[in-house]
Amino acid sequence: MINATELSALLFELYQGYHSEKSSGHWCARFLSLLVEQLRLQKASLIVIPPHDDDRGLIFTSSPDGDIALAQDILQTYADYYARDPLVNIPTGRLLTVDDLISRAEFEASDYYQAFLQPLGVHKVAGMDWCSDDGARCSLRLMRTKEQERFGSRERQFLTLLLPHLRQATAIANHLSCLASESRIYSDMVAKRAIGIVTLDDKGCVLKKNTAAEQYLSHMGSTALGKGRPRLGDHDACRRLERFIDEAISAARKNVNYSINALSVNTDQGSFQLLVKPLPQTRSPTWEAAPCVALLIQAPEHRFDISVRTLMNLYGLTLTEATVATIMSEGHTSEEVAQEMNIKKNTVRAHIRSLFAKLGVSRQSMLVSVVLNSLATT
Predict the structure, then answer these.
(1) Higher-confidence residue: 375 or 214?
(2) Which three-class secondary structure state does DSSP give residue 178?
């Protein structure tokens, strides 16, 4: 029986595989290779078949070199004989062998054995299936040569012990794969729109920032491009930013709904738009500071694209009301809106009151949040 040290090494490889950048699509190859070594197998494979007819699924094998190439070569052949495999669609959750299902003579006389297994030197086959939460069917296959021992109670006991970890590892791998796909989409969108992103901790100090954010902060006269609080050259804008950051930190700590705050910073390069919003807080198992606030920055040449016409249709606004909402969402004050639209301040305030009523909000920051999160913003 596998000892505790060997089991620990096996579980380490099972959970470590999808953390390695080198693992790529073969995240469990090292685990399968170690399984072959510890159970004295000829080879092992993991077949994952998604619940979609248009996706043929994946085959992972115990060697990242020879076996993977071999699997690609024989994949079509295997598909031809798949329906004749005695271990297809076996009951989930327990290890079964071919000998549990059909006689040895019948198995060795089958086209499946003669065309698919015998050329590979495979004589004994055991399998265990389980289903993931999303409906995918996972099939672990263990193979031995004619000279090796038959599968018995030792392997059954061990695979029963291993099954919860197999379920968990495949679920985590699938989740991480989805996150990676979403991250690539998000990164492409950010790169296309040249958005600067700064994350701040619960003291308002910089945790991380991308290259665009560093450039934009420099253009705005920032004197804290390191790990301190972001500062702006414009004192009025800096005070507003400080207040927005403090409000966002307070909202994040209390886990309450908070509207996005926006401000506009005029520079020689043009008007930069800054959005400040709290981030959902979770308890971290590490001592590292968790992101608490996000600061999003757009350069003058990449302004937030807000459709006035869409705002009018979504909320039943007049053209003037939609225009006021759009300008305010770019971070301008009511005085700046009046100046840009060449209307009186009292007129702007009247339009703002009307916007509050139509959008169901009570503060300017809430108004900005509704506009920036609506379908009118692309």
Answers:
(1) 214
(2) helix
Instruction: Provide the whole-model pTM.
Output: 0.53
Other beta carbons within 10 angstroms of residue 166's beta carbon come to 18
Residue type, 264: S
**Counts of helices then strands in the chain (DSSP H, E):** 14, 10
Residue 118 DSSP symbol: G
**pLDDT tens for residues 21-78?**
444 445 678 889 899 999 999 999 888 877 655 455 677 788 655 444 344 444 454 5
Instruction: Match 């043929």 to its residue by tokens.
Output: 56
Residue that is written with structure tokens 């791998």 in the block? 173
Establish how many alpha carbons lie within 13 A of residue 327's alpha carbon, considering only the half-sphere containing its beta carbon: 19
Judge whether 306 and 279 are in contact, CB under 8 Å: no
Does residue 148 sit in helix, strand or coil? coil
pLDDT in tens, 326-372: 888 877 888 888 888 888 888 898 999 999 999 888 888 788 878 87
CA distance 128 to 159: 8
- Find, among 148, 111, 130, 188, the residue nearest to 36 by Cα: 148
SS3 content of the chain, % helix, strand, coil (to 5): 50, 15, 30
- Which domains are delineated in the chain? 4-182 (3.30.450.80), 194-302 (3.30.450.20), 308-372 (1.10.10.10)
